Amino acid sequence: MTTRAAWALVTGASAGIGAEIARSLARRRYNVVLTARREARLESLGEALEREHAVKTRVVAADLGDAGSRGALLEALGGLPIGFLANNAGYGLRGGIDALGTDAQVEMVRVNCEAVVGLTAPLVARMKDRGEGRVLTVASIAAFQAGPWMAAYYATKGFDLLWSEALWHELRGTGVTATALCPGPTRSEFFERASMGGTAVERLAGGVLAASAAGVAEAGVAGAMRGRRVVVPGLMNKASVLSTRVLPRRWAAGVAGRMQR
After folding, report:
1. Catalytic annotation on 238?
2. Is 154 considered catalytic here?
3. Residue (of 190, 116, 112, 191) closest to 157 by Cα position
4. In this structure, are residues 61 and 11 in contact, taking their beta carbons and an 8 Å threshold?
5. Domains held by the chain: number
6. CA proximity to 87, closest of 20, 190, 180, 25
7. Would residue 2 count as lying in a domain?
8. Cα–Cα distances in angstroms (integers) from residue 122 to residues 75, 99, 141, 236, in the given order
9. What is the pLDDT along the chain (261 residues), one digit of tens a residue?
10. Could you tell me which residues come within 8 angstroms of residue 236 by beta carbon, excluding any fewer than 6 positions away?
11. Strands 82-87 and 133-138, how do they pair?
12. Is residue 27 part of a domain?
């Protein structure tokens, strides 16, 4: 049972799955620190959470791809007892390696991977000292295979998944758990930012089989509270993940490439 004193940190909380994770945690009586770059959206969400769930919120605008900004975020947390960390911040870019440019791809790696490690390591140390805590890292079903035309994005999600799975084993017996959430196509702003208009994946995200951000978030938070290692919401997504383990890796990558083109 969560107490009023418990705090959660949700990254990428300004929209989509991140905002819904914050709502799910507030329903569980967590006070919530909201961070992303869009401060106005965070303020609006924080006000709604306080009004609807009688919890406390704090807003810290941050660019998680920047080490200095991450350091400022950690400093702003002060002595708050962060009992739940949701590593949700991340994004994808579609295009060939030469078309996307070096800087854009390196920045994505910083946000999707470096920031996850940079926030989790110090906060897990505090959780272990208290003997309890939950870490939820949002990966993707893309984590299970290579993805031509989104090569760096798929690889970052693979990092998030494997890193989280390793943490799950490392943390056994400490009272702290690590869970990887691997959603499939979800109705959110992701596809617009990734320039995926017209792709098969984008059409799936807009179809009746696409998941809601709220449903994905609830599955992830519930799984983390139970200490699950990996959560893949939805039967279609589970089938997709299974297929990547049955098909030769070259074939799986070829299918992914056709979906992105």
Report:
1. no
2. no
3. 112
4. no
5. 1
6. 180
7. no
8. 11, 36, 27, 36
9. 344 469 999 999 999 999 999 999 999 999 999 999 999 999 999 999 999 999 999 999 999 999 999 999 999 999 899 999 999 999 999 999 999 999 999 999 999 999 999 999 999 999 999 999 999 999 999 999 988 889 999 999 999 999 999 999 999 999 999 999 999 987 655 545 545 445 555 555 555 457 899 999 999 999 999 999 999 998 888 888 887 777 666 656 666 666 666
10. 184, 209
11. parallel
12. yes
Q: Select which of 30, 153, 154, 238 is catalytic.
A: 153
The number of residues in the chain equals 261
Tell me the residue range of the domain where 176 lies. Answer: 7-260
Quote helix, strand, coil % in the chain, to nearest 5. 55, 15, 30
Cα(213)–Cα(256) distance, integer angstroms: 22
Chain CA centroid to CA 29, Å = 21
Q: Report the C-alpha dihedral over residues 252, 219, 46, 178, rounded to 10 degrees.
A: -80
Return the bridge partners of 212, or none: 187
207 occurs within a structural domain: yes
Which residue out of 56, 91, 157, 238 is catalytically annotated? 157
Residue 145 tokens read as 């295979």
Is residue 14 within 8 Å of 38, Cβ to Cβ? yes
Give pLDDT, residue 260: 64
pLDDT of residue 1: 35
